[in-house]
């Protein structure tokens, strides 16, 4: 099997905390309904994401691993972020290792894409874990194609066969499943079906169920349109941190129980086309968060800014921790994008996000 690098062994955060920290930020925006500097590598991964995607998350693994936040502070912040059901993304990243035998902390960067409504808000832990095992993940790493296939075969105890997917791309699927032999199990790899593998070239791989991998391969080949429109704009606008997320909400992202924060003007949240989020740790006590709301026109942006300003003020009256967060948070508006920007105590960020569950 592959040997962990010094970077992974020496990371200041525990494996679970690092993955959970990244996942919590991812699902903070995934909850809209229920990463990284803008490099060529990042663009190449996102360019393989199919156009129908409504949830897109990018993780710069090295930047997260090099973060200065302590494990204790990070885990404390995660208690509040759990309100977003961070199990989905955490389980998806953990399932990647369970199903492939590849360490996600060995990757250079990771992209997760899918449907924000794929898992209902009232799903059980077992349902979340089962669904997360089918999430589609694109990784950029230093693994060779032979190593990836060997790791898959050893983990699933199945033989994989390849076929050309156009250009330099390859597609691998288990021989027994492809031929209808066996019971569709996947050894110790977790999940109901063994993963399909797509090889995009230059150390980039896509892993997931058949539909997700095929969609990424077709997009990579230019046979299908890549992600674009409001969600791509939200992603590009937020793409300036170790963790970047973009999502398209299905209706208003404001939970009913917090509609009072809008002062009777909660209809404006129905006008939000997409949401972008960037998240970073500054030191062992401080996090940097920006949440961008994209709307159609200047009038909607102006109204949303006004409503959010009132909502942040109202949040400060709920408890002391929220008061600190709401006092330090600022609102910015640039054309049709309204942003909540906060840099401060990790616990206060967690409390703020927990109240804004669904945003």
TrEMBL record:
InterPro entries: TAT_signal. PROSITE patterns: PROKAR_LIPOPROTEIN, TAT. Residues 156-197 are annotated as: Disordered. This is Uncharacterized protein. It comes from Natronorubrum sediminis.
């Amino acid at each position: 099997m592959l040997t962990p690098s010094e970077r992974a062994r020496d990371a200041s955060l525990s494996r679970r905390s690092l993955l959970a920290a990244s996942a919590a930020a991812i699902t903070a925006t995934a909850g809209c309904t229920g990463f990284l500097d803008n490099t060529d590598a990042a663009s190449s991964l996102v360019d393989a994401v199919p156009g129908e995607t409504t949830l897109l998350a990018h993780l710069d693994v090295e930047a997260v691993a090099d973060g200065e936040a302590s494990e204790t502070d990070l885990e404390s912040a995660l208690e509040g972020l759990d309100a977003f059901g961070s199990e989905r993304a955490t389980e998806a990243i953990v399932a990647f290792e369970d199903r492939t035998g590849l360490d996600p902390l060995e990757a250079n960067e990771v992209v997760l894409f899918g449907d924000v409504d794929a898992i209902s808000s009232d799903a059980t832990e077992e349902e979340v874990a089962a669904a997360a095992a089918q999430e589609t993940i694109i990784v950029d790493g230093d693994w060779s194609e032979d190593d990836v296939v060997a790791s898959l075969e050893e983990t699933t105890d199945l033989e994989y066969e390849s076929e050309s997917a156009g250009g330099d791309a390859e597609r691998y699927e288990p021989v027994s499943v492809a031929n209808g032999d066996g019971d569709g199990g996947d050894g110790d790899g977790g999940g109901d079906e063994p993963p399909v593998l797509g090889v995009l070239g230059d150390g980039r791989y896509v892993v997931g169920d058949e539909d997700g991998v095929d969609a990424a391969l077709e997009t990579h080949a230019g046979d299908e349109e890549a992600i674009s429109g409001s969600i791509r704009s939200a992603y590009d606008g937020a793409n300036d941190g170790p963790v970047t997320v973009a999502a398209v909400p299905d209706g208003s992202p404001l939970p009913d129980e917090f509609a009072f924060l809008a002062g009777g003007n909660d209809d404006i949240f129905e006008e939000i086309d997409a949401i972008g989020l960037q998240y970073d740790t500054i030191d062992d006590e401080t996090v940097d968060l920006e949440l961008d709301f994209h709307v159609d026109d200047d009038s909607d942006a102006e109204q949303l800014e006004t409503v959010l300003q009132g909502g942040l003020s109202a949040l400060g009256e709920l408890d002391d921790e929220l008061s600190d967060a709401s006092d330090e948070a600022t609102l910015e508006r640039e054309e049709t994008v309204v942003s909540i920007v906060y840099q401060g105590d990790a616990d206060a960020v967690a409390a703020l996000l927990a109240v804004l569950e669904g945003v």
